[in-house]
Amino acid sequence: MILVTGGAGFIGSNFVIDWLTQTDEPVVNLDKLTYAGNLQNLASLQDDPRHVFVHGDIGDQTLIASLLQQHRPRVIFNFAAESHVDRSISGPDAFVETNIVGTFKLLEAARAYWQALPAADQAAFRFLHVSTDEVYGTLGPQDAPFTETTAYTPNSPYAASKAASDHLVRAYHHTYGLPVLTSNCSNNYGPYQFPEKLIPLMIINALNGKPLPVYGDGMQIRDWLYVKDHCNAIRQVLAHGRSGETYNIGGWNEKANIDIVRLICQLLDEQRPRLDGKSYAEQIMHVADRPGHDRRYAIDAGKIERELGWKPQETFETGIRKTVLWYLENPAWVTHVQSGAYRDWLDTHYGNL
Questions:
Q1: β-strand partners of 222
Q2: 125, 204, 296, 314: which could join 221 in a potential S-S bond, CB 3.0 to 4.6 Å?
């Protein structure tokens, strides 16, 4: 049995689905179902007895302790996080509460559970914390990519809250011996991503004839990682990673935002041409840059390849094509997210949890 927190969000739901495709080991899935938590992501598991969904908060230490005692998981995967930089700028409180305080309370519950386990179960237990490359700050054009030893210099409330959670996880390993693993990933993309993020926002706005807003000159560079590659990497970290270690997970795909948007327009021109025959690129609109916008992120994923044998299977070109096609083939999911109807899924399909 494994416990996944944040398993109705973008990366978490992809991970749960992928896990149950690869193994029969059951999953207890805890999610607070904030705006970005969407149980429709998990519709394929609705009648699967291997998947137990629990509506709750990682900050509820009593609930966490109860779940741990009831289900006795061998690993906790912590995906639960507030993760949108723009929202962290306008409302940082939720990021501090979930990413810092919530992680602390989850760690406290995990420590108490782990310390009471028999010695063999203690040795086998893992707490795997999923984090971000944004904790490292920004890079200049010629700077070497982030490694696991790069100093933390977070520049947004979101990045600072994730950096704090990383430090707590590290401290619980060094102070209490809790067997932890931390992964810092680059920008994920793929199915089920909430449409406030760059790639789904551009796809959906383009199809709806809306402007495609690009911050500043659009030359902010990110490393892009297809979400299913990320799921594979996390499984490798769990299976073979050394307790207390950090592993950077990246796609070896540095791309400027404006180039991403132009490529999406090209794919949509090919797959779903505009009725007027013009390119979706005509909808691109440059807008004022956001405060504190980091210029470049880049991940050196060499350690996880050397030590664990993992490397991404998708190039950006193959991954983005799969992503665009998924959004084109799943208009009902998009419509429910846009209308807010996805929030009704909990009551309709799970009752009053």
A1: 255
A2: 296
Token readout for 69 is 């005692």
Give the integer Cα–Cα distance in Å for 287 and 160: 25
- Amino acid 34: pLDDT: 85
Pair of tokens at residue 102: 């919530």
- The residues near 5 (Cβ < 8 Å, ≥ 6 apart) are 12, 30, 31, 58, 76, 77, 78, 79, 80, 106
Closest Cα to residue 210, out of 256, 261, 260, 270? 261
From CA 17, how far away is CA 280, in angstroms rounded?
A: 33
Q: Which residues are catalytically annotated?
A: 133-134, 158
Distance (Å, rounded) from C-alpha 114 to C-alpha 102?
A: 18
Q: Can you tell me which residue has the tokens 């030359």?
A: 219
What is this structure's pTM?
Answer: 0.93
Helix locations, 272-330, DSSP H: 302-308, 316-329
Distance, in Å, from the CA atom of 191 to the CA atom of 197, rounded to the nearest integer, reads 12
CA separation for the pair 109, 3 (Å, rounded): 13
The pLDDT of residue 343 is above 50: yes
pLDDT at residue 305 greater than cutoff 90 = yes
Report how far residue 121's alpha carbon sits from residue 321's, in angstroms, rounded to the nearest whole number: 43
Domains of the chain: residue spans and CATH: 2-350 (3.40.50.720)
CA 182 to each of CA 101, 185, 190, 215, 331: distance values in angstroms, whole numbers, following the listed order: 17, 10, 22, 31, 35
CB 170 within 8 A of CB 180: yes
Token pair listed for 267 = 């794919």
